[in-house]
Amino acid sequence: MSKIAIVGGGIAGLTAAVELAAAGNRVLIIEKGSEIGGNVESYGCKAVDICTKCNLCLVDDIINDVSSSKNIEILYRTSINDFRGKTGDYTLGIETDGELYSVDNLEYIVLATGFTKWSELETGTPEAFKDNRILWASELEESIKNRIDRENGQDVIDLGYSPESVVFIQCNGSRNMQEKARYCSRICCGYNYRMARVLKHYYPEVDINMFYMDIQEGGFIQDISFSDLAENDIGCINCKPVRIEKNDNNLILHYENQLTGKTESIATDLIVLSEGVHANEVNEKWADLFNLQIDDYGFLMPIESEEQTGIFLAGTVKGPKDIAGTISDSKNIAYRIKNARNLSKSGG
Ligand SMILES: Cc1cc2nc3c(=O)[nH]c(=O)nc-3n(C[C@H](O)[C@H](O)[C@H](O)COP(=O)(O)OP(=O)(O)OC[C@H]3O[C@@H](n4cnc5c(N)ncnc54)[C@H](O)[C@@H]3O)c2cc1C
Ligand code: SF4
Ligand code: SF4
């Protein structure tokens, strides 16, 4: 039986924990917050008359498996401040609620401390956008999560008003060097399309347009197609947003139409800003403590010799991934740990 520490109790850490515990290992999850689940805890089911396959359901099953496993222990409000030892026998110095102690005899350590939403970075919160008619995607996710039954006679989704038109702005916090993210975040096309469908379902008359800058692998092409948008009466405009003007009645988005090259404008009463996936700043600490490399954007770089060092990386700590991608990455990491153990036992 190996003793394994998993740092981070998001989907990545929890999936690895379930797989490793099921194989008979003792797993300790070290979570800095007071809950497990990570970023997805604030998202809502995006089913309309049908399931839109956002994959959030997968999370409930994993959390249930964690709760029912006798081999998994969770330390909440805990951080790591020291790492020592040698391969196969590591010690972590940890701090829980101000109390310091050590966890010894760790055969493997999995780092699964996830990502930071663009809205959480200071640079990603323009003062100009302090208006309840301009929402971050994660704010709309939360409103969708908290939606109530129609029968109550109140607004189904509590936005404070019923929007007549909505504009989704794609690629915000992604694919832009000024925002320190030249990459595609791979998830925002999908979650915005699903949230647009939820709004359409509850406000059938609402006029919805998705403003996108470019088509990129992992974006519209992979997740949804233009015909999906058209079928659901969701407009799609290829443009570069230039400026948002606010007045008492509505918002006016000025944009450069990529097809005509002309500056145009559209009036709307709700703007939803997509949020890119950014590196968690704790990655720099991990790079120092565990002798790892970080890439140009601050994500941890996959370690080629994970089996030799016993330090593994799982999930979005390495870069953008959706829930399904995160789960499959973590299952793969757990498989490799189980295999590494078998090899070392057989002297291979
Ligand atoms: C607005 C938005 C909507 C999304 N909607 C969808 C969707 O509908 N479908 C979909 O498939 N994907 C969606 N995603 C992507 C999804 O959030 C990720 O795929 C998923 O959260 C990745 O899980 P993770 O465990 O890698 O990271 P996280 O969710 O970031 O979890 C990391 C965990 O590590 C903990 N942690 C961090 N630092 C430390 C530390 N120093 N010590 C200990 N613990 C630490 C955190 O508290 C957290 O519990 C969305 C993303 C965004 C931004
Ligand atoms: S949570 Fe997502 S996957 Fe589950 S029913 Fe709702 S829309 Fe479908
Ligand atoms: S997933 Fe879509 S919205 Fe997000 S960065 Fe990629 S192309 Fe842009």
Low-confidence stretches: none
> Can you name the CATH architecture of the largest domain?
3-Layer(bba) Sandwich
Helix and strand composition category? alpha/beta
Identify every distinct bound molecule in the structure, by name, code or SMILES.
Answer: flavin-adenine dinucleotide, iron/sulfur cluster
The percent range for strand residues is 25-35%
Q: How widely separated are the two ends?
A: 18 Å
Number of strands: 17
Order of strands in the sheet with most strands: 9-15-10-11-12-13-14
Any idea how many domains? 2
Q: What Rg, in angstroms, do the CA atoms define?
A: 22 Å
SS summary, helix count: 9
Instruction: Summarize the main sheet.
Output: 7 strands, mixed
- By CATH, the superfamily of the largest domain comes out as FAD/NAD(P)-binding domain
**CATH fold assignment of the largest domain:** FAD/NAD(P)-binding domain
In percent, how helical is the residue content? 25-40%
Please trace the helix and strand order, writing H or E for each element: EHEHEEEEEEEHEHEHHEEEEEHHEH
Please give the CATH class of the largest domain: Alpha Beta
